[in-house]
Amino acid sequence: MSRVVTLIRGDGIGPEIAAAAVRILGEAGADLEWDEQLGGMAALADAGDPLPDATLESIRQHRLVLKGPLTTPVGTGFRSVNVALRREFDLYANVRPARTIVPGGRYDDIDLVLVRENTEGLYIGYETYITVGGDPKAVAQSTAIVTRRGCERIVRYALDYAVALGRRRVTIVHKANILKAVSGLFLDVAREVAESYHDRVEVNDVIIDACAMKLVLDPGQFDVLVTTNMFGDILSDEIAGLVGGLGMAPGANIGETGALFEAVHGSAPDIAGRGVANPTALILAACMLLEHIGDFPTARRIRTAIERTLRDDAVRTRDLGGHASTDEYTVAVLRRLA
Asked: What is the pLDDT of residue 77?
């Protein structure tokens, strides 16, 4: 039976890369139907709201989303359309894999997954200014909120993920040496949860700044990393840089009642409409969606086609040092699927 997926093509290069992903999924035989909805600037222009009720209702109904990059409109009251989606549907687990596909970089064998708590921490947005001496912005204050429940469920998600996929190690990333409360709670809860997994997967922990350095020096010492919201935001872009940049970086946002899959890069308005965008991140995100619903064979076929296109055929978009347009790259992947 076909699964219906809410499709948000997005802003900027979003429609171009979404078209490539939908085309490849169709040719690969993915049994999906699309319910197209708007978000971001496109939605603001059409419906006067960057996150219209129709889009939210579609997600509530289908519980699966494939999303291109969205631009958050200025002056609408939204801090981020992406953050709003995560909060609305409690998509607490952000999963960001990074795997070497294009050879020739500093590292040729990276295979990492970062699992990031997606709904708490500093990004919850509890901020204020304090007036001193008549200056209304003399002091800026931001409050991080970290809950035991939030810590427990993200660490358990990371451990279950590692066990299910046969990964060897989960590393807890924290700053408990300085942030005794918010990061200390995360580390304490993570260690408690890890006790019941001691015979299934190795667990260790590392301070965030040391982790950032070690990822550059020797990323092979890590396998799955689990951390809080802001640390995960930073580290996930770092590991994307190790494998060719954000054009190669898919992401999944998982909750108990829904899942959203996306290209994690921005809408790149400077190259929108020029036909040069790299659609790989969104195509790989679509593969994650297929795996989420149990269609592993189709996801495997698409991943293999991408790898052969990039490695064997050396058909690459400009961000990867090639000259292929978005359409030329898409056609090359389709040839490998045939």
From this structure: 59
